[in-house]
Each structure stands twice: as structure tokens, then as C-alpha cells.
Amino acid sequence: MEVITIDFPDIRFDMIWNYKELFIRGIWVTLGLTLIGYVSGVILGLLLGMGKLSKKKWIYYPCKYYVDFFRGTPLLVQILLIHLALIPTVFGESLGYFVSGALALSLNCGAYNAEIIRAGIQSIEKGQMEAGRSLGMPRGVAMRYVILPQAFRRMVPPLGNELIALLKDSSLVTVIAANDLLYAGKVVAGAYARFWEPYITVAILYLLLTYIFTKVITYVEKRFSNSYVPSQRRRIFSFGRSAAGG
């Protein structure tokens, strides 16, 4: 019986060290694209989610078609359309990979966040809105101070998952020559004609960033959960401030 053996090449991480500035810049570009895309996506998603709950057709249908388009087409195609077609047509020239990448990620993230926000709002019992209206609150005020704070607690886990997904999806901007993490790996692989070291490094760095984001999301989920109890030190500090104020 023939035994199949796999010979792994000698790992040379010295080549990664030689290009450390490129990887560091790639980390910052990746973080910048992710955070800008996510924050913009949350704001856009809130507007779209509220629009999909509107009873006015001229508000509902544009929001619905927007969400359907960006959720139903690949992000890679959206990046290429925005970078090669939309921005040059509107501005007459390319504005660079960062603007195109951030815009594509923001528009795509906004569509997914819209569904998260819509579902979160609809998960709140209708009696909550009726209670706010019975106290004399206009619908907008009741939505802001009664519905959204309760819905946000339920939105935190899926919104956190969307952040992690966006971090990994940001690697797609390398197709428009963005100097992100994946681009750094491709440069090193091309310079040395070796693939284990650069792509393992890229994978490890993405894993590290994902781990950090996951820890932050876990803290936020715990902080906004109904069972959250402040630490003893914080409660003592709060009591001291209350006593001093009293």
C-alpha cells in the first residue's frame, strides 16, 4: 500500500518582517474601511429600516427596492460598479480606492442593517407604542424614547455579527487595488513566489482583528442585556455621587 506524504516547505517569516510596514498600513486601511462602512451603514440602515415600516408607499417602495438590490447582488459586483462606473460617471474621474471601497461597504452594510433594525422594531409589542401615545407622545417621540431603546437591546447581537462580516468582506476591495491586508499578502507572495507565509500571516491578522471585535461586541451585549448588573465599585461610586448631590 502506497503511503502519501505531504512535504511542507520551510516557513520563512523573515519575508513578512521585511514587508512589515506594508502589513501595518494594510491593517489601518482595513480598519478604516470597516469602521467607516459600519458606522455609515448603521445610520443608513436606521433610515431604511424606518422607511420599510412606513405606510406611505413613496417611502416604503424605494427603501424596499434598495434593500432588495444590495442584499440580492454580490458585494464584489457592487464594488466594481461603484469604482469603475458610478463614481467616474458622477465626478468625471476616480476618487481612489478608499472612497469607492468605503462607499460600497456603507451601501451594502446599510441594506443588511435595515433588515436587522426593522425586525428589531417589529419585535417590540404594539402595546409599547400605544402606551407612549396614551401619555401624549407623538409617534416619532414614542419611537425614539420608548420603542428604539428596547429594540436596540435585541439588535446588538445581529448588528455585532454584521460588523464581523463586514470586517472580513472588506478584503474584497483588493480587486480595486486597495492597500488592505489582503493586498499586502498578494504583494509579498508575488515578490517571493511563496504563498504559505503571506497568506497565513493575513489569515492570522484577520483572526486577531475578529477576536478583538468579538470581545468588544460581547462586552456591549453584556452591557445592554436585561440581566446586566454594574460592578460593586461602580455601584458604590454612583451611590457616593448621589449622596453628595443630595
Automatic annotation (TrEMBL):
Record GO terms (molecular function): transmembrane transporter activity
Keyword list, A-Z: Amino-acid transport, Cell membrane, Membrane, Transmembrane, Transmembrane helix, Transport
Classification via Pfam families: BPD_transp_1
Segments forming domain ABC transmembrane type-1: 27-217
Superkingdom classification of source: Bacteria
InterPro entries, alphabetized: AA_ABC_transptr_permease_3TM, ArtM/GltK/GlnP/TcyL/YhdX-like, MetI-like, MetI-like_sf
GO cellular component terms, semicolon-separated: ATP-binding cassette (ABC) transporter complex
TM stretches of this protein: 22-48, 69-91, 199-220
Biological process according to GO: amino acid transport
Membrane topology: Multi-pass membrane protein
SUPFAM superfamilies: MetI-like (SSF161098)
Record-stated family: Belongs to the binding-protein-dependent transport system permease family. HisMQ subfamily.
Protein name in the entry: Amino acid ABC transporter permease
